[in-house]
Each structure stands twice: as C-alpha cells, then as structure tokens.
C-alpha cells in the first residue's frame, strides 16, 4: 500500500554510569551511479524541473517512490534502470532511444525506457513531473522545519546487508546529498533472521567496507553501528567486543512485544543501562498504519529515568508507520531529562527525508534542541557514545 506523506502524518491523525570508552559538506562530491563522466547530484534533495540527464531522472523517481512508501518492486525497477543506463558506453543510450532498442536491455522496461527517452530529448519526464507535483515538500517550511535545519545526522539507517533495499554506498551518498555531515549505518543483529541480521563475521566485514568508503568520502562520515535486538532478559544480541568497536549502538525490541508490563519494564531498563547502549529505538513498537500494532506496555517513567541516568537517548522514530514514541510518552521523556535522537529508521535512500516528521513531533512536545544528539557534530556524538561527554551547551538544556 502506498503511503502519502500528508498533513495527517505531521499532525498525528492516527488514532550516569561511565559509557563505553574507547547541504552536502563542502569536501564531498556526491555522485550518483558509477564515477564516470561528469558528477551528477543524487536524487535526494530535489531536482529542478529543467533539463536533466536520464540517470538523474530515474534516481529521482526512485527517491520519491521510496519516500512515499511505494511498493519495493516499483522502486527497484527505477534504481535498476538507472544502473543499467549509467553503465552504458557514451552515446549508446541515445542511439538506443533513437532506434527503439532501449527495452531490449535487461533491466529496462516500457516505463523506465520512456523516462530515458524524454530525458534524452531534453524534457522533464512526465512521470517524474507528476510525482514531484504530488509529493509533499518535506522540511522546507512548516512544522518541524526550524529543528530539521539544525540536524547534522541520522543515528538509525539500514542497507541491503540486512533488510534495507539499497547498498551501503547509495545510502551514504543520499545522506550527504540531503546535507548530513554524518550518518550511522545500523543494520540488524543476528537474532532477527527475518531481517537478515548480521552475524559477528558479517558485521566485521561491514566495518571494513565502511572504513573503505570513509577513506574516500571525507569530510562526510559514515559511522559504524547496529540496531541490536534487546533479548528477553534485557541483554544485547551481539558480542560485547564488537559492540565496543561500534560508533553507535541502537537497542530495540523486536520480539515478544506483548509481554507483561513489569517484565517489559525490567527488560528495557536492563538494556538502556548496558554500557554499550546509546539509543533506545522505537520504544513502544507500535504501528499506526495498515492493520496496526498496539504499543508494548511498560512503566515509561521508570524506563525514561533509567535512560536519563545512564545517558541513553530516546529515539524519536520518524517512520510514518511508527511515529514512536506517541506524544504522551514523548512529553514524559522530556520531563525525565533524557537525550533524544531524531532518526528515520530508513531502509531506502528516499526514506532519509522523513526526519521532518520526527522534528514536527519533537517541537510540538517541547523537546529542547540542545538535547537532540542528531543535531551534534560527529565529534560531539562520538565524545558522547565513547566517553559519556555531552557538549557544554547541552548542560542546561
């Protein structure tokens, strides 16, 4: 089911101890597709409805479809076509458009071929124009815009190494194109097999991949991380040695969401007190669209007090189907004095644009901007996750 980001989402119309130790940035050239020919801006921040090349048009369409939660097969069709066209020798796309043979290429269908033909003819493809007209202008003005302008990163994103839909590199490039200075890659932990959670061996391999990308991307930084399952007893689903190596650890419940409230409270308190935990992800586990899912029951005041005492941030999850925590709990977290991470939980590049939804809820519920860790620089963030230090300006927030 396609989910349109309208005003009903923005307005919510759906019924301590020591921590563990240890606009795109000016230096980043954000290039879509392969690094051949002239660099192209990614389809993330917006595309002027003037002359554009075919790959940029295909990627912008995919971005807008991802942002609207369109079915994955539609997104894959345009991202696949973009890669195919980008890999052609110079002039071949134009030649094939002229002789009608674009669709003979594996990965190019009638709709994507039409986009290519119109872009090569110097036109704005009709399908792209319709999507731009239908899409909401997220983050430019209105609720949450002031806070969104302060954000410098995102602590919760996924790639196709687990249950995301795009490669690590595409997620990083899209984040930089949105203006982030840093983004944390947080694929799932081993227990969540349905989401292809990373074994310790795969996570170690991913750390090497991220290091290689960062060697090329400076000053933009892709930080290492994990969305680590909170097990039934509150322990974390990954080797402590590996958690120690990561920049950011998001801890979340994905199983037994309806356990007894007292047991769930003990579970969450134990998790947020773990010295490796940095962010408590989507704390109630609710879903507010489709068939929905009720909130997990727990003593919110006890959990948020534990977060405040241990320095673990409460996530404001911006996914339209989550919008977690609900307002009444978000206000209680503010009163408890917790830190916050406004995250997208993005599983595709276009979903990185959802932070405005969390920002709107944060502003409405009185979240102080200084206590939002996603508004900190990368160095400030790492000072907090590794040494428990918060920026001096946050002390009185």
From TrEMBL:
<dbReference type="Pfam" id="PF14716">
    <property type="entry name" value="HHH_8"/>
</dbReference>
<dbReference type="InterPro" id="IPR016195">
    <property type="entry name" value="Pol/histidinol_Pase-like"/>
</dbReference>
<dbReference type="InterPro" id="IPR010996">
    <property type="entry name" value="HHH_MUS81"/>
</dbReference>
<dbReference type="InterPro" id="IPR047967">
    <property type="entry name" value="PolX_PHP"/>
</dbReference>
<dbReference type="InterPro" id="IPR050243">
    <property type="entry name" value="PHP_phosphatase"/>
</dbReference>
<feature type="domain" description="Polymerase/histidinol phosphatase N-terminal">
    <location>
        <begin position="153"/>
        <end position="232"/>
    </location>
</feature>
<dbReference type="InterPro" id="IPR003141">
    <property type="entry name" value="Pol/His_phosphatase_N"/>
</dbReference>
<dbReference type="Pfam" id="PF02811">
    <property type="entry name" value="PHP"/>
</dbReference>
<dbReference type="InterPro" id="IPR004013">
    <property type="entry name" value="PHP_dom"/>
</dbReference>
<protein>
    <submittedName>
        <fullName>PHP domain-containing protein</fullName>
    </submittedName>
</protein>
<dbReference type="InterPro" id="IPR027421">
    <property type="entry name" value="DNA_pol_lamdba_lyase_dom_sf"/>
</dbReference>
């Amino acid at each position: 089911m396609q989910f349109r980001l309208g005003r009903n989402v923005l307005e919510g119309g759906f019924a301590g101890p020591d921590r563990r130790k240890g606009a795109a940035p000016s230096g980043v050239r954000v290039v879509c597709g392969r690094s051949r020919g002239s660099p192209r801006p990614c389809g993330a921040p917006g595309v002027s409805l003037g002359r554009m090349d075919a790959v940029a048009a295909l990627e912008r369409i995919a971005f807008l479809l991802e942002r609207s939660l369109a079915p994955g097969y539609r997104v894959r069709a345009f991202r696949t076509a973009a890669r195919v066209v980008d890999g052609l020798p110079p002039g071949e796309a134009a030649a094939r458009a002229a002789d009608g043979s674009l669709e003979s290429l594996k990965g190019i269908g009638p709709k994507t071929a039409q986009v290519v033909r119109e872009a090569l003819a110097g036109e704005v493809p009709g399908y792209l124009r319709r999507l731009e007209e239908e899409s909401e202008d997220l983050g430019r003005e209105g609720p949450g815009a002031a806070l969104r302008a302060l954000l410098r990163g995102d602590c919760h994103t996924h790639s196709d190494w687990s249950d995301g839909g795009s490669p690590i590199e595409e997620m990083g490039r899209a984040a930089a194109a949105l203006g982030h200075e840093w983004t944390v890659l947080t694929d799932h932990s081993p227990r969540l097999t349905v989401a292809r959670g990373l074994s310790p061996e795969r996570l170690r391999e991913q750390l090497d991949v991220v290091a290689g990308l960062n060697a090329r991307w400076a000053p933009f930084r892709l930080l290492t991380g994990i969305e680590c399952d909170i097990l039934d007893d509150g322990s974390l689903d990954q080797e402590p040695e590996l958690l120690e190596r990561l920049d950011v650890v998001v801890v979340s419940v994905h199983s037994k969401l309806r356990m007894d409230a007292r047991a769930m409270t003990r579970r969450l308190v134990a998790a947020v007190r773990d010295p490796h935990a940095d962010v408590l992800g989507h704390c109630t586990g609710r879903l507010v669209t489709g068939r929905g899912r009720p909130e997990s029951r727990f003593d919110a005041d006890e959990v948020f007090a534990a977060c405040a005492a241990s320095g673990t941030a409460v996530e404001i999850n911006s996914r339209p189907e989550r919008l977690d925590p609900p307002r009444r709990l978000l206000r209680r977290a503010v009163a408890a004095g917790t830190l916050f991470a406004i995250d997208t939980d993005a599983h595709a590049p276009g979903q990185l644009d959802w932070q405005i939804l969390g920002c709107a809820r944060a502003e409405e519920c009185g979240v102080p901007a200084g206590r939002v860790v996603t508004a900190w620089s990368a160095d400030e963030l790492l000072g907090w996750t590794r040494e428990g230090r918060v920026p001096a300006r946050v002390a009185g927030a």
